[in-house]
Amino acid sequence: MWLRRRHSYLLTALLALCFLAAAAAIWRYYVSERAANEDAAIHEMSAIRDIETIQVRNWRQERLGDAGMLMSLPEMKAAERLLSGAGRDADRAQIVGLLAALKHEFGYSDISLVDKQGQTYVRLNDGVTESRVKQAQRAALAAEAREPTLSDIGIDRSGDRLITLTVPAGPQGAIILEIDPKTFLDPYLKAWRSSNRTGETFLARREPDAVVYLTELRHLGGSSIWRRPIKGSSLAQEDKLPEAWVARGPDYRGVQVVLCARRVPGSRWFLLVKKDVAEIDEPLSRLAWQLGAALALIAVSCLAGVGWIWKSHQLRMQQESEERLRSFANDTPALLWVVSAEGHSVFVNQGLSDFVGTEGQHGSVEWQRYLHPDDRSRVIAAMESCFRDRTRFSDEAQIRRADGAYRWVLGQGIPRTDSNGVFLGYAGALLDITERKEAEQRLRHLNEELALNLQEKTAREAEIRGLSARLINAQEEERRRLSLELHDDLSQQIAALSIGMGNLKRGVPAENTGLRAHCDKLQQRLIDVSESVRRMSHELHPTSMQHLGVAAALRGYCREFEELAGVRVDLQIEGDCGDVAQDVELTVFRIVQESLRNIAKHARVDRAEVVLARVDAEVRLLVADKGVGLPSERAAKAGLGLISIRERTRLVNGTIDVESAPGGGTRIYVRIPVQTRNHTTVSTA
Fold this sequence. Notes:
- By secondary structure, this protein is an alpha+beta fold.
- It has helices spanning about 1-70, 75-85, 90-105, 135-145, 180-190, 275-310, 315-330, 350-355, 375-390, 435-505, 515-540, 545-550, 550-565, 580-605, 630-635, 640-650; strands at about 110-115, 120-125, 150, 155, 160-170, 175-180, 200-205, 210-215, 225-230, 245-250, 255-265, 270-275, 335-340, 345-350, 395-400, 405-415, 425-430, 570-575, 605-615, 620-625, 655-660, 665-675.
- It folds into 4 domains: about 35-280, 2-Layer Sandwich (Beta-Lactamase); about 315-430, Beta-Lactamase; about 435-540; about 550-685, Histidine kinase-like ATPase, C-terminal domain (Heat Shock Protein 90, 2-Layer Sandwich), CATH 3.30.565.
- Helix 14 packs antiparallel against helix 16 (about 640-650).
- The N and C termini lie far apart (about 105 Å).
């Protein structure tokens, strides 16, 4: 009796420990679920924050784009005339029509044309409502307008929020466009992408002693700007705030919230997205009730087990415990198995028995005969190795199902020992991973197809580049042939004609002055044609570069270019380029030739800069001007000249950078690895 009671005490203590372990596991699960729930909420709010930040940034850029478009309109000349006092009724009507079109198209609340003293010359809502911008503020905006300026969110004379977009209108004043945040910004911020009860998005600005809320607050209402002391705000955590962060704490109501914030690029604004902690934790209340009920059920079960222990002897209790364990193993959806220390199957649960089709044979299954022939020897060898080393078993193999189909399973097992450390065998489970394997197979096929497509595309690009190289080589060869023909054939013929014309002139009597003058004109024309042919031959193929090098060829070409185009070229040559390979010399010459032509044709300048330098193991070339630059659409769609420059640079393994902005000039910077004249180059043709 004493021994039986001692065993009962031990089993009761074991049940108590199991209950505590279950309670700890449930609490840990609840904590992890709570953290996962909060992480999901933060992820959702971060996504909303990033989307709204992009929308606000794009909205600001669109407004500045409206200002840039307005400055480019011809109607701005009429505005300047009105501000200078030289305007007429037609100019006023033109400006009124423009302002009305802007309001109708872009939704501005009011638009005014003012001078630097704040005096209004034209106002769209004149006579309807009073201007929301005070005269002193209008004067300050007009006086400071050097370029389109989008103001911060401020307060108008009525206490409502207001944003102004100031567009310079000449030196005398500006056009002020009034923007109502309730029409533009507030709808963006209120449009949550998911259902919520306490979620809120708003803009704020940090000041030295306070945080200024710039948009409408959900729980306060009103359209005015609300200030809050900076102490206790998430915007006061650091002197230099990061671009984005997550914070927890009380909001302006004093309610605990989770807040995600991000700086709006190009402004002093911060976009903040917050949600009450109570709403985030709300889904966990039901889980807490369920876990509490499960814990209560476990407690009741433990108490029932204690009562049963005191009423039954040890053997009966052990039999019932084994039966409960078997029932649990059969009811679980996992495919469980147990093998002895000799490797024989001693137990499979109902799920595994149904899977392989061995109804009524739960105690023993010859598992080797269900393995796929391709996997049998490998799995048996791995299992024998684990038995020898008493290590954990894990492998993937194909198992024949009851319907004859083979399914991929992940088999895992751990060694079993008794209380004395004696090895008893293995216990484990099988997990059906067929769908994962099929997905991996499909992914491999897709990767193979992508690799094949990439290989074909690479081959096509190589073929196109080879063709481009052959075309450029053929072009240079044709230039060389035409240059020789012009110099050796046509130039000689023109020279012969000039000599013949001189002989003809000497045969004309001196008293026939008209005919002799006509002969002089014809001879001069022949000389001009000869010079044009010489210059054309030199442009087609600079023969001086073969004998004197690229430096001499560039000097000669720049002099001729100055005479013909009227554009002064500041040529600087640094270092010795005498041993540079001919293909590199020709590439440098053609790039300078094409760049200077573009400058003369498009840049609208009378001066250009060319710098050729030999620096260590590369040749560097700079061609620059301070002209009108490349328009954005032209930079996106490069012309044939720029395409030719890029292709020639690529053929000599060089790199090219083109820097240009409207009104800021153009800089072409080329860097080519040095190839000396005794270096053998392989043509891509």
